[in-house]
Amino acid sequence: MRIERIILHQIRMPLVHFFETSFGRTTQRDIILVEVCAEGISGWGEVTAGENPFYNEEWTQAAWLILRNYVAPQILGRPLRSAEEVAPLTDHIRGHRMARGGLEAAVWDLEARLASIPLWKKIGGTRREIPCGVSIGIQQSVPQLLDAMERELAAGYQRIKIKIKPGWDVDVVRQVRERFPHIKLMADANAAYLPADAGHLRNLDDFYLMMLEQPLSDDDLIDHAALQSRLSTPICLDESIRSAHHAEQAIRLRACGIINIKLGRVGGFSEARRVHDTAQAAGVPVWCGGMLEAGVGRAHNVALSTLPNFVLPGDVSASRRYWERDIIQPPVEITPHGTIVIREEPGFGYELDCDYIRHITVREESLA
Ligand code: OSB
Ligand code: MG
């Protein structure tokens, strides 16, 4: 396969409801879609960087430049035997894994479409139905949070993740547990705490959470290991795991018992699979995280979640939780028992709604 053209599309989509984490509130998304073209067929990827460099150092504007000036020139016109060759060709670029991963995922989709097989089969997936959870952002009040949880549980979701930060943590989790004593529940701090908060975080052990996600800084495996030794609740790492090497180090240090895999954060499917395999070999379960993706990224997350060690419900939820109208057809939907059924269509398995994409495009550039 030889990529003849790469088209960057930046789209703007308002969220149905704002999404708030310890690092800030998002009300509308600015998303880069990467279209790679060969032999009259297009493959699509989504860059999962945020609008601001707050979750990690990446953001939409920087990702556009990295893709245009550094990633696309490495790939354009070059004969590729498989999508696995893409990540090594951009390995000399330090960081910017979401930008690189957006294009990498597009080439995987293209390769699957050229072979007329589903992407999930191409990457070695085995599940035909994946378990789903939801991530609920920080709310204005506890009753609002409880209402939101009520709605998601009624929709069938198998586990609820709530976002926490200093001042919105132990008391909130206590009230949630009083209201929902039996559900699968977890909390995500997005790196909002310090090692000195260990005593405070230990209070969370009373609420038998499935896990506590990324309590400490993204660059701090050693303090996560120290914290884990004082907590009975398993720590799950998100921001800290950018590669299989990080996964291996975190597991060796006992810094976590569970890993959240995000396609963009680790730079695409090849590295996501390596993280998956590293964790599986160590007996560490993984699940698929989300970055408020539009349909392309959402469909890629569904495909990734079919790998065998994705044993815990992911933050892979229905399109309608985020979008009035998604950019794929049909939108991603869940069953009444909180699963997504895997589709058999080639590539990522959904149709692009190109008219709608054109309608919400704010910038486009074709590279050849
Ligand atoms: O830490 O998992 C996170 C959204 C934006 C940035 C970071 C995170 C999240 C989520 C959203 O939790 C999950 C989703 O897309 O449903
Ligand atoms: Mg997280």
Overview of the molecule:
With about 375 residues, this protein is of the alpha/beta class. It contains twelve helices and 15 strands. The chain has helices at about 60-75, 85-90, 95-115, 120, 140-155, 170-180, 200, 220-230, 245-250, 270-280, 295-305, 355-360, and strands spanning about 5-20, 25-40, 40-45, 130, 135, 160-165, 185-190, 210-215, 235, 260, 285-290, 330, 340, 350, 360-365. Helix 1 crosses helix 3 and helix 9 (about 245-250) packs parallel to helix 10. The longest helix has 18 residues, at about 95-115. It is globular, with a radius of gyration of 20 Å. The two termini are about 15 Å apart. The relative contact order is 0.17. Magnesium ion binds near residues 188, 213, 238, 260 and 289. 2-succinylbenzoate binds near residues 55, 291 and 317.
List the helices and strands and how they pair.
Elements: E1 5-21, E2 24-38, E3 41-47, H1 60-75, H2 86-89, H3 97-114, H4 119-122, E4 129-131, E5 133-136, H5 142-155, E6 159-163, H6 170-179, E7 184-188, H7 198-201, E8 212-213, H8 221-230, E9 235-237, H9 244-252, E10 258-261, H10 269-281, E11 286-288, H11 295-304, E12 328-329, E13 339-341, E14 351-352, H12 354-359, E15 361-367
Parallel strand pairs: 5-6, 6-7, 7-8, 8-9, 9-10, 10-11
Antiparallel strand pairs: 1-2, 1-15, 2-3, 4-13, 12-14
Helix pairs in contact: 1-3, 9-10
The structure holds 2-succinylbenzoate and magnesium ion.
Magnesium ion is lined by residues 188, 190, 213-214, 238, 260, 289.
